[in-house]
Write a structure and sequence with these properties.
Blueprint (H helix, E strand, L loop, with lengths): L1 H19 L17 E12 L2 E12 L5 E10 L12 E5 L2 E12 L5 E7 L3 E3 L7 E7 L7 E7 L2 E12 L3 E7 L3 H11 L4 E9 L9 H16 L5 E8 L2 E6 L23 H12 L2 H18 L4 H24 L6 H5 L2 H11 L11 H9 L6 H13 L3 H8 L3 H22 L5 E3 L12 E3 L1 H7 L1
Antiparallel strand pairs: 1-2, 1-4, 2-3, 3-6, 4-5, 5-6, 7-14, 8-12, 8-13, 9-10, 10-11, 11-12, 13-14, 15-16
């Protein structure tokens, strides 16, 4: 009887825990497969230019190639596009008497019927965006796996739980993200097919009450860059639905910047999310200043480009060095004033990186797992450490005179690749220091063959613990 009471007590305790879990956030539009076209409107709509209107019957849809955005296609049922003053100029798309956005026509076919095709540009909103809303519901494209906090889905008497929730909060807004329930299988499909797939659902709520459409632009840009730093590659919110009392008031179909899926190494731990919320809070504080926000955006831009190997290894090394120069100037010179005037600019690139690493309590030596880069360093007597080795390879690419080209030809391809990883590691540590991160991270330069083996505390935290 005692064992039965304990068993029943355990069940009741678990039920209470389930009740405390928040409900999972669904995606605004479910995609069954990558790059699936999303229908927005089927039926009549209008195109207008200088008060000359053409009525059409057709479709408006959200597509992915050759770029993310909204496309229209339809047959003319009233008016004549030939009467427009300039058929190459933009036209206004109107649905249900509301302006959705501007478009450029890409094709006009003449025959018994006139058919038009076009692409929407800039902001694309279906519904009345002048109405304030209580919540924004959206999807996130191509975001990597995170082992989040628990959520639940209740279906009748059945309760399903998962570790999906990421919460990001600043002074004005609370943003919650949840992985889709089929994340693993959908992510595998995306890995094979490439392109785009909504992998997270999210909500935005204001701490000050309702949300105006005009409040969202800067927040979305900032959050997209922040997610890019977490993801190692550009990702962004899409299909934002302004909700009030569970009713969709408007839907923003604007095509924000996102890259096609590509698996890249990233710094967040595989099974931990501690510190990510605080990271967003610090990011938001820095972003209040326009110039500092520009620094964050630009640093993450160069980081993502280098991490995506956008210009192959050689070009990406240059991009990584560009990011490190920017971070050095912002952190060491502008924020901390450690070096000023000619002293700040006249030191070598390798010494700039050393000064930067000194602020991170990071070692100058090349990590032992970078065996090819270590072998190259040991073969050249004048190379002292990791920063010197990184800069020497970068200089051989940039200063492409005969001697430098001969130097570059002697550097093995794997040593170049490892130099790139070393430079990106410096960028990741620098950004984490700037954002006040105190947790563990995934060290791309540390050996390890299984998830979690290359995770360790950031060096400034490790120093305090030791």
């Amino acid at each position: 009887m005692m064992h039965l009471r304990i068993f029943i007590g355990t069940i009741m305790s678990n039920m209470e825990a389930w009740r405390a879990y928040p409900d999972i956030i669904d995606v605004p539009v479910k995609m069954n497969q990558p790059n699936e076209q999303i229908a927005i409107h089927t039926g009549p709509f209008e195109l207008s230019q200088n008060n000359k209107t053409v009525g059409l019957e057709g479709t408006i849809s959200f597509g992915w190639f050759p770029h993310i955005g909204v496309k229209l296609s339809g047959k003319v049922i009233s008016g004549n596009p030939l009467m427009w003053d300039d058929r190459a100029a933009k036209v206004q798309l109107v649905v249900n008497s509301l302006i959705v956005g501007n478009a450029y026509l890409t094709h006009i076919s003449h025959g018994d019927e006139i058919e038009l095709e076009g692409n929407l540009i800039d902001s694309v909103v279906l519904g009345d965006k002048s109405i304030t809303v209580s919540k924004i519901h959206f999807g996130i494209l191509n975001l990597r796996y995170f082992y989040g906090e628990p959520v639940k889905r209740v279906n009748g008497t059945k309760v399903q739980t998962s570790r999906s929730r990421l919460t990001f909060e600043n002074g004005n807004f609370v943003i919650n993200l949840d992985k889709i329930e089929e994340f693993d299988s959908k992510h595998r499909t995306l890995t094979i097919a490439g392109g785009y797939l909504i992998l997270y659902g999210g909500t935005i709520e204001s701490k000050k009450g309702t949300i105006a459409f005009s409040d969202l632009h800067e927040l979305l840009i900032s959050f997209s860059h922040f997610l890019t730093f977490l993801n190692g590659r550009r990702c962004c919110p899409v299909i934002l639905k302004g909700m009030h009392n569970d009713e969709v008031i408007w839907t923003d179909y604007s095509g924000y910047i996102c890259e096609q899926f590509k698996s890249v190494p990233t710094w967040p731990c595989h099974m931990r999310v501690e510190g990510l919320g605080e990271l967003w809070s610090k990011w938001s504080e820095i972003a209040k200043d326009e110039l500092d926000f520009d620094f964050l955006k630009t640093a993450v831009h160069w980081y993502a480009e280098a991490n995506s190997n956008a210009a192959l290894v050689e070009g990406s090394l240059i991009l990584a060095q560009t990011a490190l120069e920017l971070i050095y100037n912002w952190l060491v010179v502008e924020q901390k004033g450690i070096l000023m005037g000619p002293d700040a600019t006249n030191i070598s690139a390798a010494n700039k990186i050393r000064v930067l690493l000194n602020q991170l309590d990071a070692n100058f030596e090349i990590p032992s797992s970078l065996q090819h880069l270590t072998a190259y360093k040991n073969s050249v007597t004048e190379i002292l450490d990791g920063p010197e080795c990184f800069v020497r390879i970068r200089n051989a690419i940039v200063h492409a005179n005969e001697d430098k080209r001969k130097t570059l030809a002697k550097i093995p391809n794997m040593a170049r690749y490892e130099a790139l990883q070393l430079g990106i590691w410096y960028i990741e540590l620098s950004m984490l220091k700037i954002l006040g991160f105190e947790g563990s991270y995934s060290n791309r330069c540390k050996g390890g063959g299984w998830a979690g083996e290359h995770e360790e505390p950031v060096p400034w935290r490790a120093k305090l613990v030791s």
